TrEMBL record:
PANTHER family: CYSTEINE PROTEASE FAMILY C1-RELATED. Pfam families: Peptidase_C1. Residues 1-76 are annotated as: Disordered. Residues 153-297 form the Peptidase C1A papain C-terminal domain. Belongs to the peptidase C1 family. It comes from the Eukaryota. Transmembrane segments: none annotated. This is Tubulointerstitial nephritis antigen.
Length: 298
């Protein structure tokens, strides 16, 4: 039996044997291998070659993947469908949120109104031209907060009553996504007036930020308030009288029309007025307030 098995491995041309058990195994092996192959002296190579032949015969042909050009129309339609759904969901969610606020703050009078200057504008256009502030970067979010003592706050506070005549009115950014610049300029202008007790009342230039601060900022397509504050600290900004706001109706930032470096700065403003070469305003470093301050109400 063992001799027959070994002979079967060596060659297929053995003479029939009277050993019925070896014949049975030899026949089984022959069916498994093949009945049409020629005998070879290399039994091991025959065994692997036969196995490979069986495997190769039954291997499925790989499916042809569609090219990008073939799937591009479908992907484009799919993206538009998803975008339209997202815009509709955002629109309904914003209106619902404003209406919920109006129910609990009736004295403040927040509501979703119909403004003629927004007629014909899509939600995408409204988001592009009427917003513009990007999220803070991770370094600003992880900034060490100021350590403030526990304070007692009044039940009611109105900045207009606390600092009458020192706060700038709300500015209209127009069709330019420059809320990042207007908010930064408003905070800096109000702080100058409050800290100086009205001695320094200057409306700073948002256009100076929008047109001249291009490090990570996109002008009318959005920007970061922390980077805007860095620019006001290290470079400084002039007044709105010197560099008036124009991107609201131009819908783009436009080129910088004032020198950024102090050494290159002339005494002529983009508006045509004359100012001192060193007449620019600088702010202190930005800081982060603690969110877990314990307060009590009087």
């Amino acid at each position: 039996m063992f001799r027959g098995t070994f002979a079967r491995t060596k060659t297929h041309t053995r003479k029939p044997s009277s050993d019925s058990q070896s014949d049975m195994f030899r026949g089984t092996y022959a069916r498994t291998k093949t009945h049409r192959r020629k005998p070879s002296s290399d039994s091991q190579s025959d065994m692997f070659r036969g196995t490979y032949a069986r495997t190769k015969t039954h291997t499925r042909k790989p499916r042809r993947r569609k090219k990008n050009e073939e799937t591009k129309p479908f992907n484009t339609r799919r993206r538009k469908q998803i975008a339209n759904f997202a815009y509709l969901w955002l629109k309904l969610d914003v209106i619902d949120h404003i209406e919920r606020i109006a129910k609990v703050t009736q004295d403040i009078r927040w509501w979703a109104g119909n403004f003629s200057d927004l007629w014909g504008m899509t939600l995408d256009e409204g988001t592009r031209y009427r917003l513009g502030t990007f999220r803070l970067n991770r370094k600003a979010v992880d900034m060490t907060p100021l350590g403030l003592e526990d304070v007692t706050l009044p039940l009611r506070f109105d900045a207009r009553e606390k600092w009458p005549g020192l706060l700038l009115p709300i500015q209209d950014q127009g069709n330019c996504g420059s809320s990042w610049a207007h908010s930064s300029i408003a905070v800096a202008s109000d702080r100058f007036a409050i800290e100086s007790k009205g001695l320094v009342k200057a409306k700073l230039s948002a256009q100076h930020l929008i047109s001249c601060h291009q490090d990570g900022q996109l002008g009318c397509e959005g920007g970061h308030v922390d980077r805007a504050w860095w620019f006001m600290r290290h470079v400084g900004v002039v007044t709105d009288e010197c560099y008036p706001y124009s991107s609201g109706y131009l819908t783009f930032a436009g080129p910088c029309r004032i020198a950024i470096n102090e050494t290159d700065r002339s005494n002529v403003c983009p508006s045509g007025t004359v100012y001192k070469a060193d007449q620019s305003f600088h702010v202190t470093p930005a800081y982060r307030m603690r969110a877990d301050v314990s307060i009590s109400v009087m």
